[in-house]
Amino acid sequence: MARTIGSHGPRTMEAIRKAGLNLIYEHGFEAMSLRQLAAEVGIQVGSLYNHISTKQDLLYDLIRAHMDDLFRQFGEVMAGVAGQGPVERIKAFIAFHVTYHIVRKREVFIGASELRSLEPNHYEEIVALRRQYERHLIDILRQGEAAGLFHCGDASVAAYGILAMLTGVCNWFRPHGRLSKEQVIAIYSDLVLGGLMNAGHP
Amino acid sequence: MARTIGSHGPRTMEAIRKAGLNLIYEHGFEAMSLRQLAAEVGIQVGSLYNHISTKQDLLYDLIRAHMDDLFRQFGEVMAGVAGQGPVERIKAFIAFHVTYHIVRKREVFIGASELRSLEPNHYEEIVALRRQYERHLIDILRQGEAAGLFHCGDASVAAYGILAMLTGVCNWFRPHGRLSKEQVIAIYSDLVLGGLMNAGHP
Amino acid sequence: MARTIGSHGPRTMEAIRKAGLNLIYEHGFEAMSLRQLAAEVGIQVGSLYNHISTKQDLLYDLIRAHMDDLFRQFGEVMAGVAGQGPVERIKAFIAFHVTYHIVRKREVFIGASELRSLEPNHYEEIVALRRQYERHLIDILRQGEAAGLFHCGDASVAAYGILAMLTGVCNWFRPHGRLSKEQVIAIYSDLVLGGLMNAGHP
Amino acid sequence: MARTIGSHGPRTMEAIRKAGLNLIYEHGFEAMSLRQLAAEVGIQVGSLYNHISTKQDLLYDLIRAHMDDLFRQFGEVMAGVAGQGPVERIKAFIAFHVTYHIVRKREVFIGASELRSLEPNHYEEIVALRRQYERHLIDILRQGEAAGLFHCGDASVAAYGILAMLTGVCNWFRPHGRLSKEQVIAIYSDLVLGGLMNAGHP
DNA sequence: TATGAATGAGTGTTCATTCAT
DNA sequence: TATGAATGAACACTCATTCAT
To answer: Does the global pTM surpass 0.85?
Structure first.
């Protein structure tokens, strides 16, 4: 009755996270059963509980880890344009956001669509992190406005719109499709900068 | 939401659709149980089956009805700008899309996030309708490019971006909030037109 | 997929109570599974939930119903000796208590041994009822002491002892055994009255 | 209750027995999980199996050890009144039984209420020991009857009643409560002797 | 058309137990 | 002797769906 597969501790946990990410992305959190997950990992369903505390907690873990990665990578990218002007900074933001949303499309999708399955405490925590991230873009827009470079109408509304536009790539971008990631970044950079720098003053 | 004693056929069906819309919007299709739905309507769970054939079918009904409404209203709006130029037409598109996504935010949300719960036939059907709707925007962009007015980089990519931006309002717009619907439409119209008309030529 | 057995509403609930009583008596509440119970009743396990709300609740229902019966029957018996002296009243008490604990031995056993499986609210409620019942005996003892008939040492302690003695019959009495119920009542009546009327004054 | 680092063999086993006693007393054998037990001891659940063979076996061990203690202590006490009359011997019995049931209330409670969780072999063995213990009281009663001192009605029935009365103290006696152990013993001695010596001859 | 009782498969979770390390 | 990861069966409970009344 001992284990039949030689997977050990951390390796199993990693397999659970990976399979969980895929299954939640494909079927949704509610629709993914722990039996599916266990089967994907190659263990019995009860064995999952040697690694996770609840199904809920697995979701939180995945989303939280994604948010941490997002912030860490974002921090590194923005450090590279610290001290530069709003145009350079928003270009860096767009390039980063699109890249991350293409590379981590499953995490990003789950982090948006399965938020409602989090329990209140975790929900609030993640929403706060999202707001914090959005605020970085709003700040750039405000700086651009202050410098007389951008004309947003309303920095928050513009930021929400830009974020939605850029985030949308994870829904349609195909890695080896007609356009490269760089081309998409260029198109959206032009579109956004065009809009910000000339909005209402065409 | 309690039962109107003696409520018959169409009235009950309407109550089911209304309650279903709310519950799916709040909890998601997978997470909504027919027991919840029946309780909200004020009937027993078995009685639902006098009005719907399956839970799946209720979802399809709601989404299909929403798509039909979308196309009908869209048709009316665009008929009003038939023969006019790309600028007027995209302004009409933006105003319509934002308005519809504010007024019908629950239908719109469900129509996007619960698509994966549809069975393949219905899924394909709805996705085709969505593509058809997107194509209208792409066509406007193409006409604008052909007329030398717009510079999109890529009409499809620009359209996806614009749609995502506009659709996003249903996630954050609050009816009696800081900005009116008209203000939001104005801001996004400026942003989009600014982007399209000057992208890459600032 | 419709029902295979023609049992209807109240009949099914009665069957559940009866089978539950037997199974809990035999195996204990924790050890009884709803699968066993459903099998005994002849329905699927899920069907139990058309009649009970939780396993806990079934236990509470059984115990509460038993307590209600106990009080109702006790009330009738004691009404018959109202106004009589402590000796007649304690004889009536003994006869009633022994009889009830022989006839309803399973309810009585469950009502004592499975109390700890009740949730706090229900636990407190049942314990309060038990105290109320005990108090009737304590009152009889106190009246006997006041009349100079009984010498208890301590009415509460004597009452607990007498109750334990009488309650014990449900553990060893066999309906068609060596002694009849009436003989047991006579023996314990003599023992108790002898003890009360001569305790410490032999 | 956390682990004493480096605790070895017998010390760990002793901790398991102690924690097991408490947990079974509080929650019942079926309701106690080995995870709870291991946590209380401060080891991992798997480590329990270095000390016990099965959960069942732990229960048997605890009950058997309690019966052995009971018999050993009982033997010593009764040796002290060997050759004396039934009155002295029953007084010694009462004092011993009450004392043991106050001091070892958890063992006693488990030894009565969890018997049904023993497997048949062990169950029979323990029940036989209990009968053997009861027989000592029955013998005293018979000797008292033969000597014309006691009037029991039926020695077995009286013995069961007396045992139940005395055993009951473990349910309500509180160490520093209104009455001392000695007072309780005195009250029950009077009650029992009064009953035995005058039953049916008041 | 509404009800209530049924089905059978499914849910997340816990369990006692095993065993390589 | 202790650990941590595994097993497989079991648990209470919920689900969408059916259908005689």
So the answer is: yes
